[in-house]
Amino acid sequence: MGVKKRIAVITSGGDASGMNAAIRAVARYGIYKGLEIYGFYEGYKGLINNNFIVLDPASVGGIIDRGGTFLYSARSERFKCREGQKEAIGNMKNNGIEGLIVIGGDGSFRGAHELHKQGIKVIGIPATIDNDIPGTDYSIGFDTALNVIIGLISKIRDTAYSHDRIFVIEVMGRNSGIIAINTGLACGADFILIPEKKVDIIGIAESIKKNRASKRHTLVIVAEGAARASEVASSIKLLVGREVRVSVLGHIQRGGSPTALDRKLAAEFGKKSVDLLIEGKSDCMVGIKAMKIITQKFEDIFETVKGIDESLYNLTDILSR
Ligand code: F6P
After folding, report:
1. I want to staple 7 with a disulfide (CB 3.0 to 4.6 A). Which of 14, 99, 282, 303 is the partner?
2. How far is the CA of 58 from the centre of ligand 1 (A)?
3. How far is residue 126's CA from residue 284's CA, in Å, rounded to a whole number?
4. Which of 75, 106, 108, 130 best tests ligand 1's pocket when mutated (most atoms within 8 Å of CB)?
5. Residue nearest to atom 4 of ligand 1 (CA)
6. Which pLDDT band holds residue 213 (cuts at 50, 70, 90)?
7. At 192, is the secondary structure helix, strand, or coil?
8. Is 43's C-beta closer than 6 angstroms to any atom of ligand 1?
9. Residue 214 has pLDDT above 90, yes or no
10. pTM for this predicted structure
């Protein structure tokens, strides 16, 4: 049976720009459909602590263009055990909550899946700058992060070409090279180091030496999961015999006002997730494939790893020559 009265929404895991726009969409669309919407603070931790706010249309005003999440986010150790999950379920039941929308990444969806197994209706909205969730072309926050990063790398390029320098720039992506490949392509990087490929510093150094006459500056983008930028820089310096500068972009990549794409995804994902709960669906994630909003079972995405787009990776290499 579908939900009729009251649902909850949380943001969980690493924040991603556009989460606020998604909360707004869930709240306003849910209210439009006659539901009451409870926003729990700090993800699963807030469910355990019964820490919530009842969202009305005004409470989600003025947040569509703000990065981060006004419901805050957290990684809860207590929720990983059965006892924490029972407390969260108890609080939801006492509050008359019939369904939960989880805005977050793969890890957050695994938590939602546990709640589903214990009788709670759950829907996931993919939101992570890493865009490493299988079953969707885009997750909320990815496009904003790419735009933030290319803005930063363009500034580095200004100084790199002025000073004839090699720069090693570390971007996020603990387990995935998706951010590195996409920003590398968009910034005209000369080399991209990603966890999915063997790191070949000797090859990079030889190529830099060989192309010395035609290239005044070199940009090397390193996904944090592939290597530490400082170590890559030291090795290149040793092998090439030139100064190498390092820039670790860090959490600056996760902030900023969401792009039009992320706001649009937030609106459509928010609407779809509310519709799914009303229809009585559970244990799945909304997503976008070939520009169409779709639904994916959680179990299908847990069994898959979203690999890199090899053709994009190869294209970056071809275009850097
Ligand atoms: O949001 C995903 C991510 O950006 C990863 O790429 C990164 O390794 C991680 O979050 C770092 O997050 P935190 O500092 O919050 O643990």
Report:
1. 99
2. 31
3. 11
4. 130
5. 172
6. confident
7. strand
8. no
9. no
10. 0.96
DSSP string, 205-272: HHHHHHTTTT-S-EEEEEETTT--HHHHHHHHHHHH-S-EEEEE-GGGGG-SPPPHHHHHHHHHHHHH
Q: H or E element: which one contains 48?
A: helix 43-49
The tokens describing 135, both together, are 């079953």
Which one-letter amino acid corresponds to residue 186?
Answer: A
State if residue 172 touches ligand 1 by the CB under 6 angstroms criterion: yes
Asked if residue 159 has pLDDT above 90, the reply is yes
Partners of 40 in the β-ladder: 52
Closest C-alpha to ligand 1, atom 16: 14
Whose alpha carbon is nearest atom 1 of ligand 1? Answer: 14
Place of tokens 């909003």: 293
Active-site residue 15, yes or no? no
Q: Indicate the top mutation candidate among 174, 224, 248, 249 to test ligand 1's pocket, ranked by most ligand atoms within 8 A of CB.
A: 174
- Domains defined for the chain, CATH in brackets: 6-141+258-302 (3.40.50.450), 143-255 (3.40.50.460)
CA distances from 206 to 192, 239, 297 (A): 15, 8, 47
